[in-house]
Amino acid sequence: MSSSKGRWVSVDTWFYIDPYIQKLAASEWPIYKYCLDGPQRNAYGIYEVSLESMAFHTRYDETEILRALDKFGRAGKIHYVDPGWIVVKKHFIHNPISPKQEWLINGLRTLLESLPDGMVSRLTDKGDPLFIPYLYANASLLLGKDYPNPTLATLTPSLTQTPSMFPLPQTQGARNNKSYPQDRGKDVNNSELERTKRRLAKGKEF
Fold it and tell me: Model pTM?
């Protein structure tokens, strides 16, 4: 028996009511979810995985997997980069890195250095479908001072960055004073609809 342990991976329960996810075909939904919580997925949403492995775990053939990945890519959700790399476009919005998490920052540097030739340039090019704002904003810090970073060079939250990318922690008082649907006497379903609208407005869909 192997003594190795897997990693804990969590997916926001919002995933199950995301409008885009609900419109996926029955064969596409498991493939999408696998990209978010499969065994090869890492802390950065950019990882290597073979089509053979995806086919084995999802029980769909490679042709169907490629068809689904192409659809996800055209929607700006998840990209498959040949040979065998997955890029989850909004990973850093749902999983922001704190400036205090130096081990994650160092791991991200190592990952970027290991990517295939030209892939980092694509991830930091505004005109490329693979473009990830977080990496663009922090390119100098992650890749060295000589890297052509257009604007920012810090992992610290900034007013010039997308607010939803670096959600500021709430103070204890703000949490304690937060009101909830049951406190306001509003219908829970209406509240859910409002939260859905706010989430979509912030670009936090999957």
Answer: 0.69
> CA-to-CA distance for 80 and 150, rounded, in angstroms?
26
Torsion on CA atoms 128, 134, 140, 142, rounded to nearest 10: -110
Region of 205 (left: φ > 0; alpha: ψ -120 to 50; beta: rest) is beta
Instruction: Decide if 46 contacts 84 (C-beta within 8 A).
Output: no
Q: Confidence class of residue 179 from pLDDT cuts 50, 70 and 90?
A: very low
pLDDT in tens, 88-143: 999 998 888 888 899 999 999 999 999 999 999 999 999 999 999 999 888 878 87
User: In a 10 Å sphere around its CB, with 0-12 CB exposed, 13-18 middle and 19+ buried, how is residue 201 labelled?
Assistant: exposed
Assess contact for 161 and 137: CB atoms under 8 A: yes
Instruction: Please give the radius of gyration of the chain, using alpha carbons only, rounded to the nearest integer.
Output: 19
The domains located in the chain, with CATH, are 13-93 (1.10.10.10), 96-160 (no CATH)
Q: How many CA atoms lie within 13 A of 175 on its CB side?
A: 5
Residue type, 12: D
